[in-house]
Amino acid sequence: MLKAMSASENSGWTLVVPVKTLVAAKTRLSAAAGPHRAALAVAIACDTVEAALSCALVARLVVVTGDPVAAEALGEIGAHVVGDPEAGLNAALRHGALEAVRLAPDDAVGALQADLPALRPAELSRVLTAAAEFDQVFLPDAAEIGTTFYGVRPGVPFTPGFGGESRERHLRRGAKELFVEGVESVRHDVDTPDDLRLALALGVGPRTLAMAERISASNRDGGRASGPIGG
Ligand SMILES: Nc1nc2c(ncn2[C@@H]2O[C@H](COP(=O)(O)OP(=O)(O)OP(=O)(O)O)[C@@H](O)[C@H]2O)c(=O)[nH]1
Ligand SMILES: C=C(OP(=O)(O)O)C(=O)O
């Protein structure tokens, strides 16, 4: 998606967001979400992408996915969707970054996780402003084990090292760790029911909220625990 920008805003960020094929997505939420797991994964990705596109510093957003349902939903929101090379998460991100550079060679490129349903555009702006000071940066997740954002300045090689203990990996590779106050919504990725409860407490986007309420109701009807996501 190309957003309208003022003359003074002639450059910005292109974000690349990876979205796994839905049959394999959010498996750690399987027990809690039951038959709603794939719909929850789409809802979370859509809320993340919509919030990211609302950030003034985000000029465009490239989603990498091989999933037709996710591709359609995210394309409708305004993402530029490309296919998945099916060689893992970092290959998907590098593929998206090639498209990002093709679309806007003079813009910075960032990878943003797709599971940030509480994302606030103003908090993402703070992260991107801080990131622009360095060649290669990352933001650790709230647990300080993984990574939620990785970015490079225009022209700097894009070499993301997501997966597992990626904070340590990004540090080893010389990426600058960002320390920015008040950006919890950019750090709270959702993998487990506890993560989802935390995100709900921060305040999630409308699709995730609706899905969480639906899951909670169906768990209640099925005689299971009735709090948000069976909590
Ligand atoms: N396009 C693409 N995205 C991926 C791939 N692997 C992971 N992702 C995305 O990268 C992010 C982190 O992925 P994971 O934590 O491995 O998977 P998840 O679906 O979030 O959760 P689990 O199934 O519980 O591990 C999520 O936004 C995924 O959609 C891949 O091979 N291709
Ligand atoms: C892929 C990552 O995250 P997670 O598996 O927690 O979604 C990561 O933090 O590098």
UniProtKB/TrEMBL annotation:
This is Phosphoenolpyruvate guanylyltransferase. Its EC number is 2.7.7.105. Gene3D superfamilies: Spore Coat Polysaccharide Biosynthesis Protein SpsA, Chain A (3.90.550.10). PANTHER family: 2-PHOSPHO-L-LACTATE GUANYLYLTRANSFERASE. It comes from Streptosporangium oxazolinicum. Phosphoenolpyruvate binds at T147, G163, S166. It is an enzyme of class 2 (transferase). SUPFAM superfamilies: Nucleotide-diphospho-sugar transferases. Pathway: Cofactor biosynthesis; coenzyme F420 biosynthesis. GO terms for molecular function: nucleotidyltransferase activity. Belongs to the CofC family. InterPro entries: CofC, Nucleotide-diphossugar_trans. It catalyses: phosphoenolpyruvate + GTP + H(+) = enolpyruvoyl-2-diphospho-5'-guanosine + diphosphate. Transmembrane segments: none annotated. Pfam families: CofC. Guanylyltransferase that catalyzes the activation of phosphoenolpyruvate (PEP) as enolpyruvoyl-2-diphospho-5'-guanosine, via the condensation of PEP with GTP. It is involved in the biosynthesis of coenzyme F420, a hydride carrier cofactor. The lineage of its organism: Bacteria, Bacillati, Actinomycetota, Actinomycetes, Streptosporangiales. Keywords: GTP-binding, Nucleotide-binding, Nucleotidyltransferase, Transferase.
